[in-house]
Write a structure and sequence with these properties.
Elements: H1 4-29, E1 45-50, E2 53-58, E3 63-69, E4 74-76, E5 81-90, E6 95-96, E7 101-110, E8 126-127, E9 131-133, E10 137-139, E11 142-151, E12 156-168, E13 180-193, H2 202-227, H3 232-235, H4 239-253, H5 265-295, H6 306-345, H7 366-392, H8 397-426, H9 431-474, H10 476-482, H11 494-511, H12 514-526, H13 531-542, H14 548-559, H15 571-588, H16 597-605, H17 611-619
Helix pairs in contact: 2-4, 2-9, 4-5, 4-9, 5-6, 5-7, 5-8, 6-7, 7-8, 8-9, 8-12, 9-11, 10-11, 12-13, 13-14
Pfam families: 7tm_3
GO molecular function, one term: G protein-coupled GABA receptor activity
Domain G-protein coupled receptors family 3 profile: 203-425
């Protein structure tokens, strides 16, 4: 029987061995996510197996492994990389077997599985092809074997180990029987990142191509602005404000080069800067133009002479420029102050450890999020206020068409913003789709936000062409040359009446267009004489309701000397017009006697053959 002291000693030893084994198992299974063998990448570890029993230890001095060409700390996922390591075994050891190095390869274990050891065998581990070789040299009493390997990894963070195996015989025996197996390994951490290049995706190249077309469009607009620098439609829209609008479109278009599927710390900061400043320069001019329709509505004052009218117009233009400068300056100041504090103290950045398909998401600190929210809130309020202002504004004639252009630009941009917000929230995981919609919204906003200038230029071209074609068709130029020699008599020659009727055809054709009436009304506002255009508009409306009552209203308002808006025609023309109207009244009578719209319109417009022509001359 064993003595109590021997029993206690045996139990103590058994307990210590059990605790050591438990500690080892907990260490292996803990999945601390740090590194190879408790974070030790400096030492070479050996697993020595004798008769089925295995012991792990730091390799003795007789066994060494070193990295000759270590793997890089960061690699691109699914891209091959080369590495080279060396096994050194002392010549005092009796290496047996053929080939002498019976196994050599690389193992890569995800960091979250804990320790990475040669014996681990799960589907989570990536290994390279097995190699076998003999020692190729002897250096300083060490057998030397150099192993060259090629490897690639999926996306993730890994611990990679170089693993070799050889056998040492008992004594001087070359037999494998009873030989000790040595598994030797060294480790290194490695980060495998998504294989991606800047603007390397097909969808990114598509957006870049569209952005190039956008830039060509902006070059065209700048050329259009320079060529028409002194034109009224450029001058009246405040030149510097138009330039801000175009350059805002250029800056905002550039955002697609920074906010893409592969971003860095630098592009994150550039995206914030270009988006904020570009939006301010693009949209603020539209907001200002919408405000002008409320602050500077056109006013009519027939008692002001031409020189005073020009002075009033100049002062109003100056007030517009000062108002626009104040609003634009305020918006730029907000951008400069917020961006300076934000980017200098809390710049956005890319989390290098994020394991996502695309690196398209900038990270913001809590302080940076406050600045971003403030910036977004300011610009959202401006958009909402511009939308309400544009929809609530009212105008007539030429100004109504200008309002329509600005209103359409603001509405399109507001819709684009809403679509982007919805897509960002609803399709957050579909990176390519979100990038496509966001980029298209940016490009559409820049084009539609500056299209008003092109549309206004097109309208001016259309008006010039209509006038030119009409002049060629009816030989208006000849009529203009000969009109000064005509006498205001109803008995003038047939040829003179024929030419005057030709001019009336031109005027009627042009005036039937609401666009041209708008421009004529605008011209009459500048000369403080809107009666002529209003008279012709009344005649156009008469077509839809041809009655003597409406005709009497036209005569009372525009023809008779005591009319509120008496048109500027000669006394002889006025007298003959009144006489002809009295004849028509006697022929048709009053009360309940309607007359043919076209016939009476012809009579009304031909009270004198020169009436309409004189009116057209007064507003030209």
């Amino acid at each position: 029987a064993n003595s109590p002291q021997v029993v206690r000693s045996y139990k103590r030893r058994l307990l210590l061995q059990s605790l050591a084994m438990l500690a080892f198992l907990l260490l292996v299974a803990s999945g601390t996510g740090h590194a190879y063998l408790q974070g030790d990448f400096e030492n070479t570890y050996c697993w020595r197996t004798i008769s089925g029993d295995q012991l792990r230890e730091v390799c003795p001095e007789e066994i060494k492994m070193i990295w000759i060409e270590p793997p890089p700390s960061t690699v691109k996922a699914d891209d091959d990389f080369d590495t080279k390591y060396q096994l050194r075994v002392s010549t005092t050891l009796n290496v047996v077997g053929y080939p002498q190095v019976s196994h050599a390869n690389l193992h890569a274990c995800p960091v979250n599985m804990g320790q990475c050891i040669p014996q681990a065998d799960t589907e989570l581990i990536t290994t390279s092809a097995e190699k076998k070789m003999n020692f190729t040299a002897i250096e300083n009493n060490f057998y030397v074997a150099d192993i060259q390997d090629n490897f690639k990894l999926p996306v993730g963070s890994f611990n990679i180990i170089a693993h070799t195996r050889f056998y040492v015989g008992n004594g001087t025996s070359n037999s494998m029987e009873g030989a000790t197996r040595y598994d030797v390994a060294i480790g290194r951490p490695i980060e495998s990142q998504q294989t991606q290049d800047y603007l390397g995706e097909t969808i990114e190249l598509f957006i870049v191509a569209l952005a190039g077309i956008d830039y060509l469009y902006f070059i065209f607009l700048l050329g259009l602005l320079v060529v028409n620098w002194n034109a009224s439609f450029v001058r009246d829209n405040i030149r510097w404000l138009t330039i801000c609008n175009i350059f805002g479109g250029i800056i905002f278009t550039t955002v697609v080069f920074f906010k893409n599927l592969y971003m860095t710390d630098v592009t994150c900061q550039l995206f914030v800067s270009f988006a904020a400043v570009g939006w301010t320069f693009l949209f603020t001019p539209l907001f200002i133009k919408a405000m002008f329709f409320h602050l500077f509505s056109p006013k009519r004052n027939k008692d002001v002479d031409e020189h005073k009218g020009a002075a009033l117009k100049a002062r109003e233009h100056q007030r517009k420029a000062m108002t626009a400068g104040a609003i634009m300056g305020l918006m730029i100041a907000i951008d400069v102050i917020v961006l300076s504090i934000w980017l200098s103290n809390y710049p956005p950045y890319i989390d290098e450890t994020q394991q996502e398909e695309y690196r398209d998401r900038c990270h913001y600190s809590s302080e940076a999020s406050i600045f971003a929210g403030f910036m977004f809130a300011i610009k959202a309020c401006v958009v909402a206020l511009a939308l309400i202002t544009a929809l609530a504004a009212k105008s007539d004639g030429h100004h109504k068409m200008a309002l329509t252009r600005i209103r359409h630009a603001i509405i399109v941009i507001a819709i684009a913003v809403c679509i982007v917000l919805i897509v960002e929230l609803a399709f957050r995981d579909d990176k390519e789709f979100v990038f496509l919609i966001r980029s298209l919204a940016i490009l559409v906003s820049t084009v539609c936000g500056t299209m008003w200038l092109y549309q206004e230029w097109q309208e001016r071209r259309m008006l010039s062409r209509v006038a030119e074609n009409a002049a060629n068709l009816y030989q208006l130029e000849d009529t203009m040359k000969s009109i000064n020699s005509m006498e205001p008599s109803i008995s003038e020659s047939y040829e003179q009446d024929k030419k005057e009727m030709a001019s009336m055809k031109v005027f009627n054709e042009l005036f039937s267009s609401s666009i041209i009436r708008g421009y004529l009304y605008r011209q009459s506002l500048e000369t403080f004489d809107t009666e002529s255009v209003e008279f012709c508009s009344a005649v156009i409306e008469f077509r839809h309701d041809p009655t003597l009552t409406r005709a009497q209203t036209i005569m009372d308002t525009f023809i008779f000397n005591n009319g509120d808006k008496c048109v500027n025609i000669s006394s002889s023309v006025r007298s003959k017009t009144e006489q002809r109207f009295e004849e028509l009244l006697n022929q048709n009578g009053w009360f309940g006697k309607g007359i043919g719209g076209n016939d009476f319109l012809i009579n009304l417009c031909n009270f004198s053959p020169r009436l309409v022509y004189h009116i057209s001359c007064s507003i030209s």
